[in-house]
Amino acid sequence: QVQLVESGGGLVQPGGSLRLSCAASGMIFSIFYMGWYRQAPGKQRELVAVIRSGGNTNYADSVKGRFTISRDNVKNTVYLQMNSLKPEDTAVYYCNADVLGDRGKLVYWGQGTQVTVSS
After folding, report:
1. Residue of 58, 10, 54 lying closest to 37 (CA atoms)
2. Are 84 and 12 in contact (CB under 8 A)?
3. Which of 41, 51, 88, 109 is 20 to 30 A from 102 in CA distance terms?
4. Which residues, other chains included, contact 48 with Cβ-Cβ below 8 Å and sequence gap of 6+?
């Protein structure tokens, strides 16, 4: 079974930086895209950034110029470098991946990692 495990969340002051990681493991034949979503209290889950197998990326307007998504295809790992963090970036961040594995082509989610931006 495919699993996504996130790491790197925490508490940071406004203007600071954090780097999130998400590693996919299990019987994986191919990963079509990997991405990050976030959900703040009382709000719907929203897309933050996505990177496709060819390297194409998309970002939410609210994070453009501050966040960078990257991917290590050998390690099946996606990263989210978050700079110039703002209090409104506070949320639980979830990793997401479209994977062809032993159960076919499915979308998987990580368990989430808390990011808190506060002074």
Report:
1. 58
2. no
3. 51
4. 35, 36, 37, 38, 59, 60, 63, 67, 80, 93
pLDDT digits (tens, 9 = 90+) for 16-25: 999 999 999 9
Residues paired with 6 in a beta bridge? 22
The Cα–Cα gap between 116 and 97 comes to 24
Distance CA 16, CA 53 (A): 29
Considering only CA atoms, which of 93, 94, 99 is closest in space to residue 53? 99
Q: What is the pLDDT of residue 1?
A: 87
Q: Look over the chain and give the mean of its residue pLDDT values, rounded to a whole number.
A: 96
Task: Give the tokens for residue 42.
Answer: 């009382």
Q: What is the DSSP letter of 27?
A: S
The DSSP 8-state label assigned to residue 79 in this structure reads: E
**Amino acid of residue 94:** Y
What is the number of other CB atoms lying within 10 angstroms of the CB of residue 79? 19
